[in-house]
Design a protein that fits this description.
Belongs to the UPF0065 (bug) family. With 330 residues, this protein is an alpha/beta fold. It is built from 13 helices and ten strands. Strands 1, 2, 3, 4, 5, 6, 7, 8, 9 and 10 form a ten-stranded mixed beta sheet that branches.
């Protein structure tokens, strides 16, 4: 046998021997990287770091955070889609993942989102585990003479008060979608006032420059306690423990809509299922730790979920958000 043939046979034999144990040996090198398509210091970044810290202890591997914000989360998410499918690069996505997928069908999508969507939300990713649920509450400035959803809707329809200002994070954002979901459900006359982030919108709401908006419960709670904002209704299926006296939309007379924001972990498509499963188990175990709720703080509530549940949720949201987008963005 020639040296060349002997070397080739050796390489092939080693390849076959290594293949079955590859996933079992993972993780065998450092570090595991989580790409967060949002700036450092925000809710997504803080939550990812809390979960990564807990999961790294069980995996006995360093997990680092790589922030790549921009273009409605498209920049960072594309980096995940193009990464090697070996379990050493995963990413964080939010409900914007489904929104961007639905938006991509519009002729002006790139103008609205700041970039083309160069990946498929369903085909190019493997959901790994949940991360956080962000419960939402509809709030008003105390000067607004409405204390129930029906009051607010009627106020928006009154001629002298038509055009009730509603703060959002810009066209195509989850907040924009939620405003139009509320408008469709209640038939209210809301006027969209876009902002570049939650903080500037909240500042104007507190100052009375805008009338109402949807806020994360954990974020709004401090202002509600201080009497600087008035909660009208929570948007989930049940009342939230942090605001037990605040009714849901359904309890307020508007059933049929339950809204929350969420973030979860994904891997590039093609990542071995055994690795996806192991990552999912470890991340979900970290989310179920008793101390995790405190570690997450105002970011949101722990959201342990498996791959199948997350895939189904993305498909459902693409359809739901797509209907809103088609009706509101021309």
């Amino acid at each position: 046998m020639s040296i060349t043939r002997r070397a080739l046979c050796t390489i092939v034999a080693l390849g076959f021997a290594a293949s079955p144990s590859w996933a079992q040996e993972w993780p065998a090198k450092q570090p595991i990287k989580i790409i967060v398509p949002y700036p450092a210091g925000g809710n997504a970044d803080s939550a990812a770091r809390a979960v990564a810290e807990a999961a790294s202890a069980n995996l006995k591997q360093t997990i680092i955070i790589d922030n790549r914000p921009g273009a409605s989360s498209i920049i960072g998410t594309e980096a995940v889609a193009r990464a090697p499918a070996d379990g050493y690069t995963i990413g964080v996505v939010s409900d914007s993942h489904a929104i961007n997928h639905a938006m991509a069908k519009l002729p002006k999508a790139a103008d609205v989102l700041g970039a083309k969507v160069p990946y498929d939300a369903l085909k190019d990713f493997a959901p790994v585990s949940g991360m956080i649920i962000v419960p939402l509450v509809l709030v008003v400035n105390p000067k607004v003479p409405a204390r129930t959803v029906k009051d607010l809707v009627q106020l928006s329809k009154d001629n002298k008060n038509s055009g009730l200002n509603f703060g959002t994070m810009g066209t195509g954002s989850p907040w924009f979608i939620h405003m139009h979901q509320l408008r469709g459900l209640t038939k209210a006359d809301f006027v969209d006032v876009p902002y570049k982030g939650l903080a500037p919108a909240a500042t104007d709401l507190l100052a009375g420059q805008i009338d109402t908006m949807v806020m994360p419960v954990h974020y709004a709670q401090q202002y509600i306690k201080a009497g600087k904002l008035v909660p009208i209704a929570t948007l989930g299926a049940q009342r939230h423990p942090l605001l037990p006296e605040v009714p849901t939309l359904a309890e307020s007379g508007y059933p049929g809509l339950a809204i929350s924001n969420y973030l979860f972990f994904v891997a590039p498509a093609g990542t071995p299922p055994a690795i996806v499963d192991k990552l999912g188990r470890e991340f979900n175990a970290a989310l179920k730790q008793p101390a995790m709720k405190d570690k997450l703080g105002i970011s949101g509530d722990p959201y342990p979920a498996d791959s199948a549940e997350l895939a189904a949720r993305v498909r459902r949201d693409i359809e739901t958000y797509g209907s809103v987008i088609q009706a509101t963005i021309k």
